[in-house]
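Researcher: Batch entry, complex prediction.
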Amino acid sequence: MDPALRPSVDEVWHWLSEVPDPEIPVISLTDLGIIRDVEWRDDTLVVTVTPTYSGCPATTVINLDIEAALAGKGLDKVKLECRLSPAWTTDWISAEGREKLRDYGIAPPIDGTAADGVLMKRIDRLSGRSNLTIACPRCGSANTEKISQFGSTPCKASYRCTDCLEPFDYFKCI
Amino acid sequence: MATAALDPAARQAALLEFLLRVGDNTLILGHRVSEWCGHSPALEEDIALANTALDLIGQTQLWLGLAGEVEGKGRSADDLAYLRDGYEFRNILLVERPNGDFGKTLMRQFLFDAWHYLLLKALKGSSDTRIAEIAEKAFKEVSYHLDRSRDLVIRLGDGTAESHRRMQEALGELWPFTGEMFMSDALDAELVEAGIVPAPESLKAGWDEIVAETLAEGTLKKPADGYMHKGGRRGVHTEHLGFILSEMQFLQRAYPGATW
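Model: Structure tokens for the complex:
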């Protein structure tokens, strides 16, 4: 590509902010915090992506979506690189992304509650014996209970509101 | 301590062996756990087991992918998973134990998770950054697995008379397969010396602590340490591995190179 016609890195970030997550299309790849870097290396645009879960089947689809979106903008030399470290954490989900999740019916993650092996303390933190609550994304009630530690995708857990009785997904913390 | 100047070929062989050991553990356990898909006692547990299996298979891709790279013969993670014979697998015998009932599957998971968690925690500090990076990623997922399997072992142990009986029985059956996690050989020694991996026996005290605390809370009695089975880490397996491989590898064996 003619260097003069190359889009700026900022512009590419903006385009990527319009690529939806394949599993949770209400948030974008940049909301999710998995795009770690965008840079030009000579005439090739290099996009560095970090996986959410190592076995997440969406990872392959995400890579294809990035390539397709950038090809749609006329970028034909795109290279995707996978970066494992620092490992992705739900803390990287943007503030805007969290609001979009809530509106969509998924309770956003509560930072600082990721499993860390300090078992009893964590169970206490999440079992109602603390002031941290996973609020129902529909009615806002704090009276919720865990149904299962896993949900419809690797990144979610299943909860239920004991007031409005609605079952919902909680974006679990890692 | 003097830093031994290791022969690079010997170092590479030891590293490959280690990567197969860790990657085959996640591969075989992931496959075993995935056998529950569509058969669990409750939908939520079905999803949980399938997700756990998915994490383990994802980690396998990272470990065996690196193994192929270290080996340098152009073998991919898929080649290593689908085209090796039983005697080339390096997983511990515990992970190839049949699933049994739901309680036994969870007991096996807990005994493994507690060890896997401690292993990955140590590997995060590996002098080989490629290993440290994979461990950092997997550690988060495995911490979550341990949360869950530990919780269920307690609930089923301290549950009904029937669930308690089954958990105690599962523990008794699986216990003789736990010793292999902490056994070491010359290959381990070489990598321990280089700061690449922790000494297997160094994980025992932490594991004992997690297990003792969990079993006590689940009103389960820790079996006495007796004879411990071994062999998986050097390719000597029980008859169960062959059945797993025949199912897992069928497609690539019958239709070599098949893609879709």
